[in-house]
Queue: 3 jobs
Job 1
Amino acid sequence: EAQVTQNPRYLITVTGKKLTVTCSQNMNHEYMSWYRQDPGLGLRQIYYSMNVEVTDKGDVPEGYKVSRKEKRNFPLILESPSPNQTSLYFCASSLRVGGSGQFFGPGTRLTVL
Amino acid sequence: DQQVKQNSPSLSVQEGRISILNCDYTNSMFDYFLWYKKYPAEGPTFLISISSIKDKNEDGRFTVFLNKSAKHLSLHIVPSQPGDSAVYFCAASMVYYNQGGKLIFGQGTELSVKP
């Protein structure tokens, strides 16, 4: 089954404790992206990757890091989480850029205390 | 500075009638537009898209209209069904300018279709 998986699905952590949210897709997609969803703000893109070892900033990259060492994986790293990073995070992938046919993961609910 | 705006946070429609969701944008360099649908506790799903060289694209009950001079797009759902109740996001990108990887989303409109 074609899918994008994210782990963990729920996470409560404390300020400053480094964490990684994993994202994996099994569709051999070149394009992957991370978003956060906040009430009243919709979805905002954090980082995206056009291919292995190629990443670029989205609208709200501050406080986040990503890496794309393999095609299927695109982890999101929060080196020193802060309460304003409490949000619902989505990973997505697609065969081509532009957003068409983008598959989204189920989301990761992160709370930073 | 919100480049893509959905000014109606919510919309309620009777089953069988038309739903019209609106989206405005400010950046004239956007050349590709999309609509996504999102149910609670799920990730968004892609619905329909349109390139700036067109002014209309249809897919079954869903039609997207693009008015470039007004920097406005709309999604029409005809006829509306209770299963269409969800949050709808519009999004825009600049594929021609080699920035197709960057997607800007609106705030979303929650559609409720009443039986």
Job 2
Amino acid sequence: EVQLVESGGGLVKPGGSLRLSCAASGITVTNAWMSWVRQAPGKGLEWLGRIKSKSEGGTTEYAAPVKGRFTISRDDSQNTLYLQMDSLKSEDTALYYCATDGTSAFNMWGQGAMVTVSS
Amino acid sequence: DIQMTQSPSTLSASVGDRVTITCRASQSITTWFAWYQHKPGKAPKPLIYKVSSLQSGVPSRFSASGSGTEFSLTISSLQPDDFATYYCQQYQSYPLTFGGGTKVEIK
């Protein structure tokens, strides 16, 4: 059974940094395309970025609002996906999800990690 | 960017009703189109991929169709578990984009 578990959320001041983790079981993150998605309070779903599988180059793509501030990476030894978030703004306050990604769309999601950016 | 516009934004219906949600894309989408169900405090649940393919374990009362810029999700007989918010998504080109959501409420 595939399971994704996010962690690392919390309260951070504007301009600060936070790293979210997405621990995977039942899949090997090295071989998977994976994305991060967020939902701000009272808003809809917003795609943030994707990392392709290692065999397909492991390249990343980002949405404009987070490009240059957020970085997606993975640790193959830990079978974990990361989202490094720098220069955080109040508008980054949201519930953050990781998801497996591919031709079947986002077919497995974690439960989410809450990030609050406030002074 | 491909903009995704869902309608209606809110839908009030009763158990047993047939309901249809529409999603319009600002550019033509050939294959990579999906639908998700989302309930508060839970992970989004994938329902449909590649326009009309049912994800594993999704009940057959859910169906989807469409082409080009017009897509729809139909629930043939609404069940109590189906009251939720539904999102469409294109995963054809960057940035991947979601519709604004359709909340299905109890009438």
Job 3
Amino acid sequence: DTGVSQDPRHKITKRGQNVTFRCDPISEHNRLYWYRQTLGQGPEFLTYFQNEAQLEKSRLLSDRFSAERPKGSFSTLEIQRTEQGDSAMYLCASSLDWGGRLAFFGQGTRLTVV
Amino acid sequence: AQTVTQSQPEMSVQEAETVTLSCTYDTSESDYYLFWYKQPPSRQMILVIRQEAYKQQNATENRFSVNFQKAAKSFSLKISDSQLGDAAMYFCAYSGGGGADGLTFGKGTHLIIQP
């Protein structure tokens, strides 16, 4: 296991379409985070899982966004009815709950909504 | 809510020189963690250094060290002997110690290394 893996790396979609991203965390990590990063900004927290439980959601996560981590391993982030404002880099990170918040990031999925 | 402020959008330093990146934060918590992350053009965020708020000793990692001033809520990063590979966006980040909060990031500082 070489790190956090995200798929796809790039996604171009038409406005109004649904998209789904996948994140595979480091295998022994029980915490998984999703962030959104727009150009010129730092990442913004979206949501967090501990094992399969979604414990926290940002107000940034509108009703069009849903995240799952069905077996406490990989996670998916779905955006329904995409809007141009959803264009961003979506980052996934994982950590251990006793790791002093030491989070490891994936390379991200860049979404472009046209 | 916690906030993280990086007041330097861009910094430039000559190769082999020392540069300091500034970060201030606001929180009402007493227990928390602070981080510096590096994001090269490839976009993967890489942890540079971490500081636990309860530790008075400043963290160091090879050429990277921090100046953590808890009372002033300041957390600056010093890079010694700057190398071309240090060129990147640097983000300061905060994580609360009490709960399972995600990281709160600053807007970043673009570090340019002049050869």
